[in-house]
Structure formats: structure tokens, C-alpha cells
Amino acid sequence: MTHLTIGIIGAGRIGKIHADNLLRLPAVRVAAVSDIDAGPELRSWAAARGIGRVCGSGDDVVSDPAIDAVFICSPTDTHAPLIKLAAASGKHIFCEKPVSMNIARTSEAVEAARQAGVRLQVGFNRRFDRNFMRVRDHVRGGTVGEPHIVKITSRDPGPPPERYVKSSGGMFMDMLIHDFDMARFVTGCEVEEVFAQGGVLIDPMFAAHGDVDTAIVTLRFAGGALGVIDASRRAAYGYDQRLEVFGSKGSVTVGNDYPNTAEVSTAAGVSRDKPLHFFLERYMAAYAEEARQFVDGLLRGDPLPVDGDDALRAEAIALAAARSVRLGRPVKVAEAVAAETAGQQGGRQP
């Protein structure tokens, strides 16, 4: 395979970003885009980019025999069915996170892709950030020795709208799932146990939907290393994304990205600009890199950098965190998965 023809399913903000990134790759042709709200605006956007087909349904993209791979950027509840449909049609798949908010549905979708012999990559874009990749390289290369403590700060500049919160799956599945994946990514270790505490300190709307907006999550990794994630839906100063791995030989730390490196020092104090405002600004290069690696992996036959198993493991940690908040105690990841599975089979447990 020397070229790829790709279809985009879901033309919201992230779908359009993926399309633009793919169009910059010489071996890629974006042939179609679909969205449930397809109309004149989307048709104009597509025409300006040479995308020939605009559809109202992802099924139309998947059924197109000319398309080799699909990018699934539609709402989360459509991901698993679309993965199954694409797999049955022999399409390779890039799917935004999470695959679903249900371990059984995610497992079925991942298995469908495996059985069909198609490749599946999941959109954990932070793995492709140059700073976090550098941390991973230092940890895997032994620079900091054996990891002892992982510290992640994950704070958004402002909360999402209520219509999103209603169906997001909650803070752990929607927001912190990136951080759970990052903890696994930088250490190369699996999380065995989670203790999470959450509160509603920003907007009572979250409580109305059984969610939290502020959380501390502690992790215990296989091998004994510990992790802590502090998270908030609102940081007054902007998007706060920091990470440290402390080990037996030293530590490696990543701070925030800024619009510039200028620092002003006067008698009144020392100041600089706020961090880059939100995820699109902070991770724009990472989105481009994950698309490039997906395409390169398919063209060369190389392993894809993040797959369905990674999606399952991150979702399992999110389940354990939510269960821990509910029960007020540490929860083994395996326990959370077992309880979820029992519930899906008709015997839901607390």
C-alpha cells in the first residue's frame, strides 16, 4: 500500500482538525466526510479542501468501497457500533477516545477489529506531545532509574457546557482518561489499584448529573510505584498540564507550554503570559503527529502506537476511579471491571 483514501465520520471541531492534518500528508486523500448535521456550511468547508463527498450518515462513508480507513470523530455513543461496522467492511480505523463508556461494548468493538484483521488506533493524543514523549524516553531509557512517584496535574481553563456533561460519562471517563493513559504511557507499567476522591467545588450542575468537577486520584502500579493526579474543571489562569516522574536515580519534569518565553521583571514583580489556553492550542502538534503515525503505520505495516488494548486499560482505570469515589475506598482495577461485567449481566453491584 502506497496511498490511503480516508473518510471522516463526525465533522465537529476535532473531526475538522483531523481532516486538515490528514490533507497535509502527501500519501493521503480525504474522500468523504459525514455529519448528522451536514448542510451548506459543511459542504462549503469540504469543497474548499477538495473533499468530494459530504454525507449525513457514517454508514455511507463506511460502505464506500474506495475508502481504506475511517476516522471516527462522532459522539462517544456511536464509536463502538461504527468500529464494528467499519471492521465488517474491511476498513482500518482511527477512533477518538473513549471507545465507549462500557467495558463490554469496548471489548466487543476491539475484538471485532481484531477478528476482521483491520488496524485500530485510539485517539490518546497526549502520547504524541513532544514533551511527554521526552519523559517517556527518559523513563524507558533508565535516566531516572526505577519509577517511584508519578505526579500529573490536569486542570481545564473552564468547565464544559451542561449538554456535554449529561452524556460525557463523567470526569474520570471523559477528562482524566487521558491522564490514566499518560500514567501508563510514561512508566510502561500497569495500574493495579485506584483511590479517588471527588468534589463539586465549581458548579452544582455537575452534582445534578452525578459527576464531580474536582478530584484527587492516587494510583498504585504493578511493581509498587505510586501515582497522584490532581484535576479540576476550572483553572482561572488557563490550561494546566504538568507531569513529573521521580525515580531511584532522579526525576524528569514537564511544565506548561506558553505562547512565548518572554518574562518581564520590574520593581512590581516578575510576570509572563498565561499558559496556552486549552487543548487545541496545547496539543495541536500532537494531533498532527498521531495522524501521521497512524498513516505511516498502515502504509509500512508497522504496529500502531496506541491500540484497542490501551483503550480498554484506560477505561478500566476510569471505572475504578468512579467506583472508588462511590464507595469511599481504594478499588482494584480488576474489581471494578468484574463489578461492571456483573452489572451488565443483570446483577449490578455497588
CA-atom Rg in angstroms: 21 Å
Write down the overall geometry.
globular
Tally of extended strands? 15
Gap between N and C termini: 50 Å
Provide the CATH superfamily of the largest domain: Dihydrodipicolinate Reductase, domain 2
- Category from helices, strands and their pairing: alpha/beta
Strand order of the largest sheet: 12-11-7-10-9-8-15
Describe this protein's structure.
By secondary structure, the protein is α/β, with parallel strands linked by helices. It has two domains: 4-118, NAD(P)-binding Rossmann-like Domain (Rossmann fold, 3-Layer(aba) Sandwich), CATH 3.40.50; 127-278 and 313-336, Dihydrodipicolinate Reductase, domain 2 (2-Layer Sandwich). Helices cover 40% and strands 24% of the residues. It contains 13 helices and 15 strands. The chain has helices spanning 13-23, 40-48, 58-62, 79-88, 103-116, 130-140, 162-165, 171-174, 177-187, 205-208, 279-300, 308-327, 333-347; strands spanning 4-9, 28-34, 53-55, 69-72, 92-96, 120-123, 147-155, 191-199, 214-221, 226-232, 240-247, 251-254, 263-266, 269-272, 331-332. It has a seven-stranded mixed beta sheet. A six-stranded parallel beta sheet has the order 3-2-1-4-5-6, sandwiched between helices. The longest helix is centred in the last third of the chain and has 22 residues, at 279-300. Mean pLDDT is 95; it is low at 346-350.
Short description:
It contains 13 helices and 15 strands. It has 350 residues and is α/β, with parallel strands linked by helices.
